[in-house]
Amino acid sequence: MVINTNTSALNAATQLDTNSANLSSALAKLSSGSQITNPSDDAAGLAVSMKLSAQVARTGAAQDNVNNAISFNQTQDGYLQQVNTALSRMSELAVSAQDVTKTTTDRQLYQQEYTTLGSYVNTVATQSFNGVSLFGGKTLNVTTDGDGGQYQNLGVNLSTSSYTTATADDITSVSGAVAAVTATQTAIQQLASDRASIGANEETLGYYSNQLGSLSNNLQAANSRITDVDVASESTTYAKENILVQSSTAMLAQANSMPQTLLRLLS
User: Fold this and answer.
1) What DSSP letter does each residue of 27-77 carry, written as one string?
2) What are the extents of the domains in the chain?
């Protein structure tokens, strides 16, 4: 036995340091809810988690873009429903103006309402959504994923001749009223086509939105398996390490007292 070097105490101290570090790690994981509190915990897992987190963020941004595009199309259709009502009424007025029992004064009254409705349609053509023209006819490229994929959202143009001819007609004469009927029918047919296009846009974008939602959920689940702590398992580890720390502490105290037995040999 020696006095200067207490090997047993050194070994006990080393083991105490190891157990204390493990206990601190378990406590940090339980308190943070994360399996990776330091890069050294899982360097490869941390790298994968960072990539997954970035993809989740990009996917969320793409879903916002798609949902905003859906709102854009829904706004378009809301306006076009009113345009349909206006054009239908204009068509009705054009037929009524052909009544041979109506006087010029009567037709002028019809024209007044017809012009007002036409002005409404022309005004709708200038409306915008957050500064983006609703009816400029421009095709918008909507981002559909986190890697730059795009969907071509076909535009609607209310300034085409199909609409402007109808809104500019004069029904103060029978011949003008006949022409207006044809023009409003053409406008209504074009409107039906435009609304069908908007409906197709909404449907397709809805598929993309659902797809992105599913992707985001699964990416987050995959990331959770890497980073989120298993509380039940880590609680067991914490309890074990806590016991080992107490045991190591007791053994260190015991090892430190062993040199005292040498005093008996010297007495």
Assistant:
1) HHHHHH-BS-SSGGG-HHHHHHHHHHHHHHHHHHHHHHHHHHHHHHHHHHH
2) 7-33+229-266, 43-227
